[in-house]
Amino acid sequence: MAVRELSPKSSISLQIMEDIAPGGDVFAIVQPLAAPRRVVSRAAGADPEAAVIVEADEGTDIAPLLARAEAKQIADLGGGLYAAIVPVKKASIVYEHANVRFVEAQKQKRTMLEKALVDGMVGLPSSRKVTGRGDGVVVGIIDSGFDLSHPAFRDGNNKLRVDALLEQKFNGTTFSTREFSTAQLEAGWNTGGNRPGFDEDGHGTHVASIAAGSPFNVVSGVAPDARFVLVKTDFIRLAEATKWCFDKADGRPAVVNMSLGGHHGAHDGASAEERALDRLSGPGRIVVLAAGNERIDNIHVGARLAEGQTETATLDMSTEEGGITIVCWYGNKDSFDVSLVSPSGTVMAAPGMNREAKFNANGARVTIGRTAQTRHKSVEVLIDARIKSSTDLSDFKGWKLRVTCTKAEPGRFDAWITGNGRFRDGAFVESARTIGLPATATRVIAVASHVTKNAWRSDDGPQTAPAAVVGRSSRFSSRGPTRDGREKPEISAPGEMITAALAAGSEEAENSERAGTPTRTLTIEGTSMATPFVSGVIALMLERRPQLDPEGVVAALQATAVKDAHTGPTNWTPEYGHGKISAQALVNHVNQMAPSAVVVTAAGSPLADAGQAYARPAAAPQAKRVGSGGKKKTGVARKAKKKR
User: Fold this and answer.
1) Which residues are 380's β-sheet partners?
2) Distances (CA, A) of 460 to 78, 365, 629
3) Tell me: the pLDDT tens digits for 558-615?
4) What b/e readout covers 487-519, taking b as 16+ CB neighbours within 10 angstroms?
5) Boundaries of CATH 3.30.70 in the chain?
6) CATH 2.60.120.1290 intervals, the chain
7) Could you give the CA distance from residue 369 to residue 382 in angstroms, rounded to a whole number?
């Protein structure tokens, strides 16, 4: 066992990256979505970069320090927070500076499309009209990419409704960005063009069309007269992408949608990324995030333990990712012994405070670090285990996380698996507190999913999902509260199943049970789909009250949320938040708040009751059940379980 000191002024994940010599291996913490989260080899001599958020004392001139560390793409996020790209080997120059409070590595996120369900639960609503179309409002979408040839992105004259597009790229070692104007996008999407922002996955096109897509065939977005600003994201630099969206809005009211998230953090709203999003939010600047799809995925263990109590959770690593990453958190007044036990019985104990230990067991290289995190008033234990060159599947199965409470004040312990892999069923496994980051930020709106339809049409004909009960919370939808006890999600919206735009040439276009090629539509489920519906409704609210702030949005959601037999009468539940969204009730509520505002008629824009968009459903005779012979397509999008 090798042990070294860790700095309490930097996230453990960044210091793990520092520990890797050039020409070696890069941990999965920083891998792009397009590749499985596994160790990736890089060429000898390559210098890896990290996307970080630096927290400095307010008033500090950070520029000379970042220049000395050879930082690039620096963005002032406000309140002493700065985003930057820093060579990993020079990161310590930044966090060791006296005026720097903390340096946080930005972690990999994933889209929140529920792909693990074999029965493909779906819901399309009955439609009705809602006043407003989002005129004068900007809708920012940060996602996998966009098919700008689709009519959802074009007006009645076939002109793009996109003011700008940003491409963020990460190749496993270095980061880059490129911005495109409307004119460049029009040229790039002509025949033979380079198609900036192309959506290989299909997720981003679908999400954007729900929020603000132009009417086409049987589908219309919630705010079809809003303008788009789009980010094809690297799923890491979310704060920078959000700032870019608001900057491109240029004073117009804007809502930014992120149907993505992850679990690499304390789930308490105190990370630098979460606080950056809070600072970027404000009057006329709203951020909406998917709650997550991990309710039944066994990615979280947690409990309040008595002094002397031991709990053990058996887990299986991901063969796809070549290992597993677990983040553990407990209060700084508590004390816990934390160990990873290999299938052969090797016990690897977390070292003392602000230390890192390395082990080898069952063909795995294991790194365990423990640091005191002042901002969170907590202690973090990070466990990263990577199987090296093993062909024995037993090496991936039957590992154990063992936790003993040695001081209980109050003794609460939580741990999350950040990628694939899962804990086996047991008393320590908990579906609560599974809302992903950064949806746990204080001022963002976190959105859960419920079922509104369980039948749809596809290239394979009529489909049904009998297990999906209309009106119920989606069984995958992550449950609150946050780790620090705040009430999230704020609201539930229709997320099963949703018919919206299909990206031509994407992974999703090959799924004949979900794609409707003649109508250029796709029917899929997830909190990813519920989130842009809420973003679209917020665009309608901003159309009437451009200075509405996040607290005003939450108050309106709470005042108008639908309670029924499924939600129950209580003001908030872990599954539904304050209840189910009602688009018309929200618009009416905002009209009462600002009676002088102009109301735009929604002629030709059918919206669903309780907030669902689009769809004039056709009669569907003799529907075929998913899983009864339909073709399956498994691609990158389907492997990424953490899609919202």
Assistant:
1) 329, 371
2) 51, 46, 10
3) 999 999 999 999 999 999 999 999 998 998 999 888 543 333 322 222 233 222 232 3
4) bbbbbbbbbbbbbbbbbeebbbbebbbbbbeeb
5) 2-105
6) 303-423
7) 5
Please state at what angle helix 527-544 crosses helix 583-593, rounded to 10 degrees.
30
Residue type, 133: R
Q: How confident is residue 109, by pLDDT bands cut at 50, 70 and 90? A: confident
Residue with tokens 């058996």: 314
Q: Give the model's pLDDT for residue 19.
A: 59
pLDDT digits (tens, 9 = 90+) for 138-167: 999 999 999 999 999 999 999 999 999 999
Amino acid 113: pLDDT: 55
CA-CA-CA-CA torsion for 163, 164, 165, 166, nearest 10 degrees? -150
Q: Which residue has the higher pLDDT, 45 or 557?
A: 557
Question: Collapsing DSSP states into helix, strand and coil, what is residue 376?
Answer: helix
The two structure tokens encoding residue 304: 């309040």
Phi, psi torsion values for 16, nearest 5 degrees: -65, -40
* Under 8 Å between Cβ of 438 and 289: yes
Say if residues 488 and 119 touch (Cβ distance below 8 Å). no
Percent of the chain at pLDDT above 90?
Answer: 75
Name residues whose C-beta falls within 8 Å of residue 641's C-beta, 6 or more positions apart in sequence.
Answer: 110, 115, 116, 293, 297, 420
Q: Mean pLDDT throughout 510-530?
A: 95
Which residue, chain included where needed, has tokens 């499985």? 36
DSSP result, 360-371: EETTEEEEEEEE
**254 DSSP β-pair partners:** 138, 285
In the DSSP assignment, the letter for residue 286 is E
pTM for the model: 0.88
Strand partners, 625: 464
Name which of 134, 147, 176, 243 is nearest 541 in CA terms. 134
Burial grade of 76 (CB within 10 A; 0-12, 13-18, 19 or more): exposed
Fold of 303-423: Jelly Rolls (2.60.120)
Count CB-CB contacts under 10 A for residue 67. 11
Worst-scoring range by mean pLDDT, 30-39, 55-64, 69-78?
30-39
3-state secondary structure 12-71: HHHHHHHCCCCCCEECHHHCCCCCCCCCEECCCCCCCEEEEEEEECCCCCCHHHHHHCCC
Counts of helices then strands in the chain (DSSP H, E):
11, 36
Residue 307 identity (one-letter amino acid) = E
Give me the residues paired with residue 407 across strands. Answer: 335
Q: Classify domain 127-294+436-619 by CATH number.
A: 3.40.50.200
Report the top-level CATH class of 2-105.
Answer: alpha beta
pLDDT in tens, 440-477: 999 999 999 999 999 999 999 999 988 899 999 999 99
Largest CA distance in the chain: 71
- The encoded tokens of residue 160 equal 């793009």
Mean of pLDDT over the chain = 86
In this prediction, residue 129 carries a pLDDT of 56
